[in-house]
Amino acid sequence: MNRRCAIQKIILTSGAIATLTHCGSSDAKFPNLLIDRDENILINEISKCILSVNEKDFYTIDSRINFILTMINDCYRESDISKYLLGLEQFKLLINQKTNLSFEKLPAEEKIKHIEFSIDSDKEVGFFINTIKQLSLRHFMTSENYMKTYLKFEFMPNRYLGRVKL
Amino acid sequence: MDTNNFDAIVIGAGMSGGWAAKEFCEQGFKTLLIERGRNVEHLKDYPTTKLKPWEFKHRGKLTAKEKEENPIASSCYAFYEGSKHFFVKDSEHEYIQTKPFDWIRGYQVGGKSIMWARQVQRWSDYDFEGPARDGFAVDWPIRYKDIEKWYAYVEKFVGVSGNKDRLDTLPDGDFLKPWESNCVEDHFKDAVKKNYSDRHVIYSRCAHLTESKPIFIKQGRGLCASRRICERGCPFGGYFNANSTLIPWANKTGNLSLKVNSVVHSIIYDENIKKAIGVRVIDAITKESTEYFAKVIFLNAATLNTNLILLNSKSKRFPNGLGNDNGLLGKYIAFHNYRGTVSAIHEGHQGFTTEGAKPTSSYIPRFRNVYKQETDFLRGYAAGFGARRMRDLNTDGIGDDLMNNLLATKENGLWRVDSHMMGETIPKESNQVSLDEEKVDQWGIPQLKVDVDYDQNDQKMIDDYFEQLTEMFTKAGFKNIKTRDNSKRKPGNDIHEMGGVRMGKNPETSLLNKWNQLHLCKNVFVTDGACMTSTSTQNPSLTFMAITARAANYAINQLKKTTI
Q1: DSSP assignment of B194-224, as one string?
Q2: What is the pLDDT of residues B319-371, one digit of tens each?
Q3: Are the Cβ atoms of B355 and A159 closer than 8 angstroms?
Q4: Of A111, B38, B396, B489, which is the most exposed, with the fewest CB atoms less than 10 Å away?
Q5: What is the DSSP letter of B177?
Q6: The total number of structural domains that make up chain A
Q7: For residue A115, which residues of chain B lie inside 8 Å, CB to CB?
Q8: Chain A residues closer than 8 Å to B52 by CB
Q9: Is the CB of residue A50 less than 8 Å away from at least one CB of chain B?
Q10: CB < 8 Å to A163, chain B
Q11: How far apart are CA B403 and CA A146, in angstroms?
């Protein structure tokens, strides 16, 4: 049994009554995560709710969802990945308990409400949402336009002025 | 000439080895430069030098696997996604930490000169006379007058940006123009000047080109563009590394043979002629052993590997390592204590900010125990100082609120000021390296056991640094002053380990004479960090280079006279 299935089992055996996704086909690009297509869409949707960006104005080489999943898959420790996945299951459970609709189909205000509710949680779901927020921020704040326009990044400044009047 | 015979062999193609090779080659001597790592050619082998932050897959971060597999390398501030290929991975060369020690290494042509911090402050006689005056280690066999012209010689080739500060503690050189200091650095400088007669805040001299000169054009180097990503290699040669300067310079003479992926096992000593005659080398990839021969051998493998090679150079005459009759080889290792940092907020200068970037900051030369002993600890510390305007970045909220907060970051926040200490540690016999009797590395060479630690003197120095910098910051009007003793920062993490093959006047208490020759084997010279009798507080690379150039020219004269 892989880690994903084990985490789902923890959720189910802990008394939760809900229909959770089965251990279905997952994205081979992220072997440490084993996120399936629906979960990929869910994380992407949560990220867009947290930080909605005009992609034309803030172009990035890689898509936000690809960056988030790459960072978690590659840069997070096994224990944090488990915590993240547990948080994902808790979030799915929360949505299932509160509504018959999938998260993507919820009205925008309701999506925000669920995210705001979860982000302050000290359970794994809080870690899950905060991780998406932090990585969404990192992706956005390292976009070329944001770095150059708002953070005054220059790749080759060729100068240093130490007393510039504002 | 036989393919395995040379006039000189230089072990290690980093900063000091590069200088030795350049000097020999320039003066017509066939020189073999041996490097245990791969070749890194200037321009060709800097794979990340043109990458922008948004072009990195992990935006500069290391993967969890890389961190887990490399606790030693990843403890270094410069080891990240953009520079990791220049660092030795932990599994590539194991060693034994009798006490915790971060051995940060760069096995390649250029060595650590690719990723170094580029700070180059001269020593003064307050440094060279330190051990004799304060009664530790042994007296240096040289003084400032012996090395002054070699500092100038090296600086002219390297290119050093700085101010003439006229301080007896930190002699001036022939500097290129400095970058501007910023208004808060100037404010702090003025506050220190007003309140202390013996303390100074100066521009931290650095090995960056701020002016063009014929020598730099000859090297093919351009001006520093202040990109501040030097550790990835610079396509302009804007900062000094061996790859853009010393190695191609030596190569142009036609006298250089560079042998890479070659791990030196030991130096071969001939008991009949009572000299070293060559080196035994193991191919890092095929593990085949080869011997190379020369009249003179320069050992520049970087401090700890230089100790290792000498300890492993055993013969009937020298059963405990080459030149080690007194049993002091590998002992009296010292380093720099970088554990203490102080930070604060400056509420003034709200109407000013900075533009662009610079590759250096400010420097506070040692002011403790300089002219007389005045504290309950020996020696002292220098300190770095920098000031920068913070971004008023607000990442609160989600959705539109968050986006609005992010787009409002054009406004400037308060100034933040930071300092870090650079403390002199006292060389002690108990701080030492030795060969393990059982464990060997992948080339069959005994692993090095490193037994080095801080002591009470270091702790007292940290406490004093906190007290003094807090007072100086307070006098400058800085607020919210915070001190931090990063006690997890292990010895070695400063990457300034020195000693083990110290210079001295007496063969009974030192390994090297004033020309860096082994007392007991005069055609072997050690001129990297291993030769250092004490460490002072200054970043040591400039002194390694000056000592090397001096010793190499002495060896060249002896070769010409055939007295060596």
Answers
A1: HH-SS---EE--BSB--S--HHHHHHT----
A2: 999 999 999 999 999 999 999 999 999 999 999 999 999 999 999 999 999 99
A3: yes
A4: B396
A5: P
A6: 1
A7: 398
A8: 144, 155
A9: yes
A10: 180, 182-183, 186, 352, 354
A11: 11
A10 falls within a domain: no
Assembly ipTM = 0.92
The model's pLDDT over A57-92, given as tens digits with 9 standing for 90+, comes to 999 999 999 999 999 999 999 999 999 999 999 999
Nearest 10 degrees: CA dihedral of A74, B490, B113, B557?
-150
Asked if B268 and B287 touch (Cβ cutoff 8 Å), the reply is: no
The Cα angle at residue B223 between residues B220 and B225, in degrees rounded to 5: 130
Given the structure tokens 């089992």, which residue do they identify?
A9
Q: Which of A117, A147, A13 is nearest to B60 (CA)?
A: A147
Whole-angstrom distance, CA of residue B164 vs CA of residue B271:
51
Kindly determine whether residue B54 and residue A157, on different chains, have CB atoms separated by under 8 Å.
Answer: no
For residue A159, being part of any structural domain is answered with no
Q: Which amino acid is at A39?
A: E
In a domain, A93, yes or no: yes
For residue B161, the chain A residues in CB contact (below 8 A) are none
**Given an 8 Å threshold on Cβ–Cβ distance, is B59 in contact with A138?**
yes
B517-535 pLDDT, tens digit per residue, is 999 999 999 999 999 999 9
Q: Which residue's entry shows tokens 């073999």? A: B32
Locate A66 and state its tokens. 């690809």
Query: Rounded to an integer, what distance in angstroms lies between the CA atom of residue B170 and that of residue B230?
Result: 25
Give every CB contact of residue B253 below 8 A, 6+ residues apart in sequence.
Answer: B25, B26, B28
Residue A4 has pLDDT above 90, yes or no: no
State the virtual CA torsion across B326, B10, B238, B78 in degrees, nearest 10: -50
**Rg of chain A, C-alpha, whole Å:** 19
Domain that holds residue A135: 27-149
Q: Which of A53, A70, A165 sits opposite B352 (nearest CB)?
A: A165
Task: Report yes or no: A136 and A67 within 8 Å, Cβ to Cβ.
Answer: no
Contacts of A62 in chain B (CB under 8 A): 57
Could you please report the per-residue DSSP string of B469-517?
Answer: HHHHHHHTT-EEEEEEE-TT--TTTTS--EEES-B-S-TTT-SB-TTSE
B113 vs B13: CA distance, rounded Å: 10
The pLDDT of residue B1 is above 80: no
Residue A1 pLDDT > 50, yes or no?
Answer: no
Q: Which residue is closest to B181 within chain A, CA to CA?
A: A162
Q: Is A76 on the interface with B (CB under 8 A)?
A: yes
pLDDT at B256: 98
Radius of gyration of chain B from Cα atoms? 24
Residue A37 domain flag = yes
Interface test with B, best of A32, A33, A132, A164 (most B CBs within 10 A): A164
Average pLDDT (B151-160) is: 98
Token readout for B208 is 């960056």
Helix (H) or strand (E) holding B403: helix B400-407
- Helix/strand/coil for A154: coil
Q: List helix spans (H) across B210-366.
A: 214-219, 246-252, 303-312
Residue count of chain A, please give it.
166
The pTM for the full model equals: 0.95
Beta-carbon contacts below 8 Å between A and B: 120
Compute, in degrees rounded to 10, the torsion defined by CA atoms A79, A83, A88, A93. Answer: 140
Q: Is A138 on the interface with B (CB under 8 A)?
A: yes
